[in-house]
Amino acid sequence: MQRTPWHILGAGSLGTLWACRLARQGLPVTLILRDAARLASYETAGGLTLTEQGTGHLYPVPAETFDSQVPIKRLLLACKAYDAEQVVTRLAPRLAEGAEVILLQNGLGSQDAVAAAVPHARCIFASSTEGAFRSGDWQVTFAGHGFTWLGDPANPVQPYWLNELTDSGIPHQWTADILTRLWRKLALNCAINPLTVLHDCRNGDLQQHPAQVATLCAELAELLEHCGQPEAAVNLLEEVQRVIQATAANFSSMHQDVARGQRTEISYLLGYACAAADRHCRSLPHLQRLHRQLVQHLQALGLPST
Ligand code: NAD
Ligand code: KPL
Fold it and tell me: What is the whole-number distance in angstroms between the Cα of residue 215 and the centre of ligand 1?
């Protein structure tokens, strides 16, 4: 049987994790790389290396640049939220009618921008708790087993290819409530990540700031209810406390970005939450002050604040 090829944009942490697992199952996968120089570097490396449980394995996944003329029927978009719209706009002419685009971006806002840029494609939103990090050029370490929820707010019918994810060992579930999942994760990230940056601490150190965490969770729960996401607000504080405890030794993803001098996804997390509060004319003073403080902090470090 002829399988629909997976095109993967973003040979970073999650893109590599997906590419290697699909490719080792014998599924057709092609990476889309930035330009000819990156393609040459990739060809010199001979493929992607995925390290799992201390052992690295090389996967010679085929790659091409944006300039390829091959039509794309299924695209896994594995870049950061701030790159998603621009990247998909460049790929739009190659997307076949009815193509599917799977969006792995954290936070909210980038998914709607992508969907508007490619109205001829079906956009499937994802929310993942898997963890991976880049350990070198074309090298990724699988750091934390997790789960990926997939869904399409515009169409509840699940795609036929989910069995390819099962066969590839990618734990996942189709859900009609993907927006609730994304809002819930956004709220968790808003309650934890900015505080870890501003206090310059590990997630567990937020146990020293219980009142600050509780006040933010109360405002985030109010926001979720006003945004039509009451389910995402249920027991939010308890879950935030549980995550802080379960990930006590870790630095949040935003803290890691800042520590490496990299751009954060602030506009798709706390920035998105504050913009939603403004749209609903809600005054959420602690959340809004946290946003201002984070913006100032990033600016002082010379990092983008959007
Ligand atoms: P990453 O920075 O490791 O990878 C992104 C990749 O996209 C990079 O290789 C970059 O070069 C590539 N890219 C960007 N613009 C490009 C362009 N124009 N052409 C070609 N390639 C381009 O990011 P990541 O950690 O894989 O994160 C991707 C998304 O997944 C983010 O929204 C992140 O929040 C989310 N996420 C990541 C993890 C994780 O453990 N890494 C877990 C859950 C969610
Ligand atoms: O997802 C996270 C992150 O660091 O981005 C957790 C661990 C939930 C902290 O918000």
Answer: 31
